[in-house]
Amino acid sequence: MAVIKKAAITKTKRPELDEGGMGYLQSLPRRVVTVYLPLLVFVIVLLFPFYWMTITAVKPNLEMTDYANFNPFWVVHPTLEHIRYLLFDTSYPGWLLNTIIISTAATFLSLLAAVFAAYAIERLRFSGARQVGLAVFLAYLVPPSILFIPLSVMVFNLGLYDTPFALILTYPTFLVPFCTWLLMGYFRSIPFELEECALIDGASRWQILTKIVLPLSVPGLISAGIFAFTLSWNEFIYALTFIQSSENKTVPVGVLTELVRSDVYEWGALMAGALIGSLPVVVLYSFFVEHYVSSMTGAVKE
Amino acid sequence: MAVSSAAVQPRPSILSRSLSLLADSRNALGFGFMLPAAALLLVFLTYPLGLGVWLGFTDARIGRPGIFIGTENYQYLWDDAVFWLSVFNTLLYTISASILKFALGLWLALILNQNLPFKSFFRAIVLLPWVVPTVLSAIAFWWIYDSQFSILSWALMEMGLIDHRINFLGDPENARASVIAANVWRGIPFVAITLLAGLQTIPQSLYEAATLDGASRWQLFRYVTLPLLTPIIAITMTFSVLFTFTDFQLIYVLTRGGPVNATHLMATLSFQRGISGGQLGEGAAIAVAMIPFLLAAILFSYFGLQRRKWQQGGGD
């Protein structure tokens, strides 16, 4: 007994042993060094490019290159000149519209296909469903960098070259596997009993899908939709390869190929283009950040 | 199986009749439901994959269907120093960026897993680099790495750490380091948030039990956190390695493979030869050459980490 007590006493005298997962036991100075300071550095590094993008977009050209007289980290006379130039003197609004149309269409097409596929694989359990599920997962692992050359040949032969349909039909190659996989996880979380009750009440499979499963999986559909929209908004290599004329380009391709002219880089306009092109996905994402984080981690619950 | 569990319920006569009907039509129904997705994927994914392999054996050019030339493309690439340089670059880029992303991402995840004020705010902010289109953030990096007006050079010179501007993208070694840094910047959030989700599934009671047993902070991490996190690390890093290996956008924006091909990845070389140069066959051959590396990377990171999970599980 005495020995145990002694051991207990010596243990309480060494507080460093009692730390760890229980953060509240840590002293404040220690937390500052191990948690807050590194976090601050991470946040600054991760956000700096966006700050730099924003500040350059509203900086007059004079200040942009004169570091001797103007502190580059701040802007003295903010200007909207670059944004005005971008919106009225370039094809930027057109690219924005193209990107919206293509992303929306590709997202709807993929979601539609993915809902049926995920339901069939997860709930109908037709023979071979497991193998098909695995194949869908493997399809997601096939990168666009391998497919763009044969796809460009196909797109050209189908007469889709330089049309929005080239992108609307090829984006599902990475959207469908992704959405199917995500929705399969979501459908798995819906109790079987609900479907069984409906079956007993004489509902058909179609009714079960549209009246029970889909209304219950609205959060899953939203996150799959947001993911798909973001992925198509960000897509680059297909858009670069399959689209040639300026008026059909998407934002990422347009900004890079049309705004960069010869030796004169119009950094202000470039940064404004990057900023405005990023805003829609950032806004969309900030509204649904909780869905995003939870579904990204596959931990989709109610 | 819904069928067998439902059969336990009362009123089996109606149920079994409707269920047998269902079982009859299940395959047909499954086929119908799979049709849209299967059609899209077979036409635009499986077929092009096969077409790509075929193109690699032809001398197709843009606007001219090629004829079968056997392994000539591959023989040419075998003796092509630029191709081997791009293989080396891709491996260097993938390995160093993945290690950095993993280390920094895990660190950030551990920080975010602490009790922090404004936790969800930080979690949301940290994901931004991953959400924003890569090409657009790469353009911001392009401006940050500008040879003349780089803000990094200016800041370091003001602090007195360097005495002349850094030529970020003009010098081969610097260019490699710069593109890796930009890739790591973009990849950290994905790794961090996925690992954070993994961390949050670890029961707090395990830490408390280990602490009572006198485990140090390092031991808590090594013997509780790491083993339980290994499966999700395996998945996250498999994806991370895969997407880093096939990266195209960042290089295309920042260097287009230059200076003197020092940053050419296999994907950018494939684009340059296949689309810009018009040699579809050769470009396709380079793309096909990526497949063995990809398979190796997937198998390595998947099975390598799976085995460690088993070993650690057995050790407990």
Provide structural commentary.
The complex is a heterodimer of chains A (302) and B (316). Chain A is mostly helical. Chain A is built from 16 helices and two strands. Chain A has helices at residues 2-12, 28-57, 61-65, 81-89, 92-124, 129-140, 144-157, 164-170, 172-188, 192-200, 205-216, 218-234, 237-242, 251-258, 267-287, 289-296; strands at residues 260-261, 264-265. Chain A has a two-stranded antiparallel sheet. In chain A, a hairpin with a 2-residue loop joins strand 1 (260-261) and strand 2 (264-265). Mean pLDDT of chain A is 82; it is low at 1-21 and 298-302. Chain B is mostly helical and 316 residues long. Chain B has two domains: 2-55, no CATH class; 72-315, Orthogonal Bundle (MetI-like fold). In chain B, 76% of the residues lie in helices and 0% in strands. In chain B, helix 4 (81-112) runs antiparallel to helix 11 (217-245). Chain B is flat, with a radius of gyration of 26 Å. The two termini of chain B are 34 Å apart. Residues 1-9 of chain B have low confidence and may be disordered. Chains A and B meet through helix 2, helix 5, helix 6, helix 7 and helix 9 of A and helix 1, helix 2, helix 4, helix 5 and helix 6 of B.
Q: Secondary-structure map with pairings?
A:
The complex is a heterodimer of chains A (302) and B (316).
Chain A: H1 2-12, H2 28-57, H3 61-65, H4 81-89, H5 92-124, H6 129-140, H7 144-157, H8 164-170, H9 172-188, H10 192-200, H11 205-216, H12 218-234, H13 237-242, H14 251-258, E1 260-261, E2 264-265, H15 267-287, H16 289-296
Antiparallel strand pairs in A: 1-2
Helix pairs in contact in A: 2-15, 4-15, 5-6, 5-8, 5-9, 5-12, 6-9, 9-12, 10-11, 14-15
Chain B: H1 2-6, H2 12-55, H3 72-78, H4 81-112, H5 119-126, H6 128-131, H7 134-144, H8 151-158, H9 172-200, H10 204-212, H11 217-245, H12 249-254, H13 266-276, H14 280-315
Helix pairs in contact in B: 4-9, 4-11, 9-11, 11-14, 13-14
